[in-house]
Amino acid sequence: MNDTVPQGSKRAARRWYRRIALGLFTLFAASVMYVTNELTTQRYTETISNRSELRLALYSANLMSELQRNSVVPQLLARDPELISALNSQDYSRSTARLMSFVDEIGAAALTLLDSEGRAVAATNRNELGVNHSDRPYFVDALRSNRTVYSTFRMDTGAYAFIFSRKIESNGQVLGTIMVEVDVGRMERGWAGVTDAVFVTDAQGKIIMSTEPLWRGLQERDALARQPASSAIERALRATQSWAMAPAEAYLRGEAVLRREARVPHQGWQIVNFTTYDSVREKVNGILALQVMGFAIILAVSFWVMSRQTASRLVLFQRESAELRALNRRLQREIAERERVEKTLQVAEQTIAQSSKLAALGEMSAAVSHELNQPLAAMKTYLAGARLLLQRQRPDEALSSFQRIDDLLERMGAITRQLKSYARKGSDAFEPVDTRAAVSTALAMMEPQLKTRSVNIVRTLPTEPVMIMGDRLRLEQVIINLLRNALDATKTSDNPTIEILLAVGDTVSLQIRDNGEGIENLDELFEPFYTTKQPGDGVGLGLAISSGIVNDLGGRLTARNAADGGAIFEVQLPAYMLGQAAAE
What are the Histidine kinase domain coordinates in residue numbering (predicted)? Predict the structure, then answer.
């Protein structure tokens, strides 16, 4: 008894010594990793900064070279005898070919010849022929000046056009104007291939060239605000960015980036380059990973040494294990007796299960047959169109039809793959889905049927994404089934119209309304195999399948007759908010 207390005190003291040693070792490892992270991050960040500044200087020089090269072209073409002769004689039959012979050698985006009234009489872009440019600044300013004039304006596509123009004179008389459009798109594509984001701003700070098309026409602050961190993970990365990286100068797509700018010696332009810290992160993390591995090996060896001291306790565990094995043998004997009693019940259960499987297989086969009907009908239409296009020697358009057939085959494969998901319940495969995109895809799937009839489609969709948590393919199946029913319901209407209304609040509401004859029996509408169509036109599974899909998505599908005629089908689903994603 007297030896027990000192031995217990020694064991307790040893445990405390081990804990203190482990704490000191952890503190030392954390300090080493912190110092290593700071030093390596600073070193690699300086390297990236130097590379970014060098890349900006190269971009600026290339841009100025392109502008200067194109600025000389109008002066040369304004003296071209053939162009002057064409303007004098108003015979432009060879002018377009003349310009096209220059455009590849010059490297310009487009060359256009305007007469004295601003009408395009020759152009490398044949869509511009006959277009009047009399109110454009590059035409008006060129007539007023004896030099080459530079103009910038924003086109309908959102991109900016950079044009050098100069008037053409003969014997003191103004005959027209030659304009050269700089091919900035080629430079933007070259920038996008080697860097993260590059843009050029004018003297007012407005973005006029960018590898991100959505940034054109915006200020830098507004452009970056258009791509905020859209998930909780990205916001967490922003919050912890300073733990492993240098302080961020800007954020692009939720990631910290290094910002560098340089002056372009042309009308007060600035060029800005964003570079992510991905390479820094990879190199720093590689060094830290080696340190973590070394510390882990040291800890593993220490734990192995300490574990040897616990070998004596295994004897007690082995005794308890022997008692548990004896108890297990008794339990096995009892289980064997119960299994013999339950064998008779299993025979009856197997018979019932087989009957249930056959019934479920029948319903599943009918459902898949109904869902594959729509893509097959669309494929038949595209094949007929492709055959006609091939007969008319239009293979490029026929390839487009074959591409659509390939997309339909992919969709049919996705529908058959859903057989695996029918056997389980829950939302394991759900993801955020934009309902507007599902509506657009469903309308594209229905395009062959819509083209065969003159149906007025009225869409009212929000400008912002309408997000739900669900399966996009199954949601598209619901919309296609509702659109197909609406299309069949308007066969007898004088002015067939289908209205699609999408609204969002606490819930997402999608209404599909037609001006047909309405619904006679609302009570049995969603029952399987109930249909009002002629034999061969449908099996009555569309609405039943759609109702089941909507229920799986956590919503409800309802139908009612409109007061002024027709039917209204409404899908209500829980709305999915960004705040909800952060909370999850």
Answer: 367-577
Q: List the strands of the sheet with 149-154, edge to edge.
A: 120-123, 110-115, 173-181, 160-170, 149-154
Closest CA to 489 of 521, 452, 529, 519: 519
The reply to whether 10-225+245-318 and 429-574 are identical in fold is: no
Q: How far, CA to CA in Å, does 458 sit from each of 312, 513, 568?
A: 81, 10, 14
Residues of the chain with pLDDT under 50: 1-5, 228-254, 352-353, 355-364, 421-426, 536, 581-584
- Topology, domain 10-225+245-318: Beta-Lactamase (3.30.450)
According to DSSP, the β-strands at 197-201 and 207-210 are antiparallel
DSSP structural state of residue 494: S
Mention every residue, 6+ apart, whose C-beta is less than 8 A from residue 166: 74, 75, 77, 78, 142, 147, 148, 149, 177, 178
Q: Which of 142, 137, 152 is nearest to 77 (CA)?
A: 142
User: 429-574: what CATH class?
Assistant: alpha beta
Q: Could you report the per-residue pLDDT of 542-581, keeping only the tens digit for each?
A: 777 788 888 888 899 898 888 888 889 999 999 887 555 4
Q: How far apart are CA 187 and CA 336, in angstroms?
A: 79
Identify the CA nearest to 363 among candidates 481, 483, 540, 521: 540
Q: Which residues pair with 115 in a beta bridge?
A: 176
Distance of CA 258 to the CA centre of its chain: 25
Rounded CA-CA distance 406/208 in Å is 39
Instruction: Give the global pTM.
Output: 0.41
CA 51 – CA 358 distance, rounded (Å): 68
Q: Report in angstroms the alpha-carbon separations of 443 from 237, 457, 464, 543.
A: 38, 10, 19, 18
Buried b / exposed e over 384-403, threshold 16 CB at 10 Å, is ebbeebeeeeeeeebeebee
**What are the domain boundaries of the chain?**
10-225+245-318, 429-574
